[in-house]
Amino acid sequence: MKYPDKYIYPAVFTKDEDGEWEVNFPDIENGFTAAESLESAILEARYALEDLLYFTEKGKFSIPEATPIDKINAPKGAIVQLVVADMPAVRKEHSQKAIKKTLSIPAWMEDELKKRPDINVSQVLQKALKQELNLNA
To answer: What are the boundaries of each domain within the chain?
Structure first.
């Protein structure tokens, strides 16, 4: 399934009794975050939305449709604002995370590697795999 490059969802920003800003995405289950300042809450809202949508995509769950901003019921004093999730950057960031693999090599090769602390086995393996897979990246 092809997912869109951008999602735009309304978020409700409310200040709690301790002065912290709580953010809720009404359309997204468990879609919430918080921060000490409004500026931080706006940034946290974006990161939270992007992560929630990334893992929703990855799990192949359905992505809910965004409610139009003028249809959001917000408590008095709340701020309702659209938050944009830029997914290509998020997908790329998650795809570049290192994944641990178990590797078996002959004992004599391990002995030779011990003599060469300047060799990074992970980098050598990545380079060899890129070449073997005909990847230019």
So the answer is: 6-95
Does domain 6-95 sit in CATH 3.30.2350.10?
no
Crossing angle of helices 38-58/87-95, nearest 10°? 70
Residue closest to 49 by CA, chosen among 61, 38, 41? 41
Lowest mean pLDDT of 25-29, 64-68, 98-102, 131-135, name the range. Answer: 98-102
17-48: pLDDT as tens digits: 999 999 999 999 989 999 999 999 999 999 99
Q: Which DSSP string do the residues of the chain spell out, in sequence order?
A: -PPPSEEEEEEEEEE-TTSPEEEE-TTSTT-EEEESSHHHHHHHHHHHHHHHHHHHHHTTPPPPPPPPGGG----TT-EEEEEEEEHHHHHHHHHTS---------HHHHHHHHT-TT--HHHHHHHHHHHHTT---
pLDDT of 56 above 70: yes
